[in-house]
């Protein structure tokens, strides 16, 4: 079971990760501060590895969810591949030493430059470009031909899963910009003879994020299976791989996401037979949030308590530039004190926790009942901040980005320094 406190636990009233108390780190390094637990990434990763062990498989961590080099190295050393969506992410993968055959490149807007970069990666080029449109395929073909290469491709199929029956992912599905239809896939197959720079390896899908039910994946996998059955009749060579995407949800509050064993069971149900019959066929998955989300917290210090008639505002030193999700998606994050103490009854009003940025959207929690009421100078942890936290941060309001810390084997290490004011104006005239 995932939980916001799965890898961060109280011991004698102090919040810790892997037996390291977070408050001492916060005092030493200042706040706001991202803190990750290595076990937070490794535990779900290893569980997925074990569940898929019977297949020729590759787990490609969606590095946009958390792209710190040390995190990428941590996962790559465990055998993880990477799913990336930009030239910048490919550069990060290269700096982290991720092997070419473990990289897939997704995204609707790859430039010719990025295609070149992918084809040249470590000399051999990456494992697959997950192509999202016919025009993109045409450009990729031209780029590959100009380099005297064949680009490995998976077509990203949009399975058009009925969004209405699955409201949790409706936003992911209305975005028509992702993927191509079955008719277009078939059209591409017919035109492959005219594309000497393309090597069709497989089909990919990715239907959305923070999925809390397996049923949309069940639908999508079913449609994918139908499609590949049909394709195999038209293709000279067998498909070499299927990329099933990411999207498994996590618990932010009290949601119950699908378990990893049940997720693996669904993969087995749809593709187990094919994969057993064709051991050369490789299955990929692209988990992001389910590996990183509950592996990290954002620590912040309470600056002020501002009393209003019916509620209090707690102003903390972290803001929407550090963690954008609440402002962007009105998403929920649990917020807990680093030190548990006796309830302070004078502060029993409903509380909103807000940051210092000049936007009303800069709010981490609205009208919450806090059984433990932090006061000025106290530290709090915003939980489940390991995915789409630092990687979405900005310097809005000219706030330097926070430091990042990794706790592993009972020790902590700064894996990204706090930005300085000089960093803020770097490159400006
Ligand atoms: C973002 C993304 C993922 C990861 O999604 P999660 O919900 O974080 O698991 C996987 N594949 C693609 C193509 C993506 O764009």
- How much strand content do the residues show? 15-25%
Q: Give the C-alpha Rg.
A: 23 Å
Instruction: Give the overall pLDDT as a whole number.
Output: 93
Low-pLDDT runs: 163-172
Task: Kindly report the name of the CATH homologous superfamily of the largest domain.
Answer: Alanine racemase
CATH architecture tag of the largest domain: Alpha-Beta Barrel
User: Oligomeric form of this entry?
Assistant: single chain
Number of domains: 2
* Number of DSSP E strands: 20
- The CATH top-level class label of the largest domain: Alpha Beta
Share of helix among residues? 25-40%
Shape: elongated
Distance between the termini: 51 Å
Main β-sheet description: 9 strands, mixed
Number of helices: 13
Q: What ions, cofactors and ligands are bound?
A: pyridoxal-5'-phosphate
| Structural class category | alpha/beta
CATH topology assignment of the largest domain: TIM Barrel
């Amino acid at each position: 079971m995932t939980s916001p406190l799965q890898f961060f636990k109280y011991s004698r009233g102090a919040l810790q990760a892997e037996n390291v108390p977070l408050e001492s780190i916060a005092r030493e390094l200042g706040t706001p501060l991202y803190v990750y637990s290595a076990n937070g990434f490794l535990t779900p990763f290893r569980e997925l590895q074990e569940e898929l062990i019977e297949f020729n498989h590759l787990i490609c961590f969606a590095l946009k969810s958390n792209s710190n080099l040390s995190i990428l190295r941590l996962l790559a050393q465990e055998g993880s591949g990477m799913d990336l969506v930009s030239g910048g992410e490919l550069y990060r993968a290269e700096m982290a030493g991720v092997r070419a055959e473990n990289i897939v490149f997704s995204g609707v807007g790859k430039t010719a430059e990025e295609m070149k970069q992918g084809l040249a990666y470590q000399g051999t080029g990456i494992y697959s470009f997950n192509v999202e449109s016919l025009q993109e395929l045409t450009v990729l073909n031209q780029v590959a031909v100009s380099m005297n290469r064949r680009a490995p491709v998976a077509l990203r199929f949009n399975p058009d899963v009925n969004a209405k029956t699955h409201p949790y992912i409706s936003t992911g599905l209305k975005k028509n910009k992702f993927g191509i239809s079955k008719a277009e896939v078939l059209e591409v197959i017919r035109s492959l003879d005219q594309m000497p720079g393309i090597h069709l390896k497989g089909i990919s899908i990715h239907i959305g994020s923070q999925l809390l039910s397996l049923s949309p994946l069940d639908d999508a996998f079913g449609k994918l299976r139908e499609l590949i059955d049909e394709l195999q009749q038209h293709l000279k060579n067998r498909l070499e791989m299927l990329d099933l995407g990411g999207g498994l949800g996590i618990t932010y509050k009290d949601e119950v996401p699908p378990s990893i064993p049940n997720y693996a069971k669904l993969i087995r149900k749809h593709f187990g037979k094919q994969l057993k019959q064709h051991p050369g066929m490789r299955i990929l998955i692209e988990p992001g949030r389910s590996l990183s989300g509950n592996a990290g917290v954002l620590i912040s210090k309470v600056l002020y308590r501002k009393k209003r008639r019916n509620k209090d505002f707690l102003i903390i030193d972290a803001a929407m530039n550090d963690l954008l999700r609440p402002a962007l998606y009105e998403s929920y994050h649990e917020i807990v004190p680093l030190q548990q103490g006796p309830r302070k009854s004078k502060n029993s009003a409903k509380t909103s926790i807000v940051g210092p940025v000049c936007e009303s959207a800069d709010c981490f929690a609205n009208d919450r009942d806090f059984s433990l009421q932090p006061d000025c100078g106290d530290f709090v942890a915003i939980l489940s901040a390991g995915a789409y936290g630092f990687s979405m941060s900005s310097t809005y309001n000219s706030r330097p980005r926070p430091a990042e810390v990794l706790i592993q084997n009972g020790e902590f290490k700064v894996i990204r320094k706090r930005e300085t004011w000089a960093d803020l104006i770097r490159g400006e005239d």
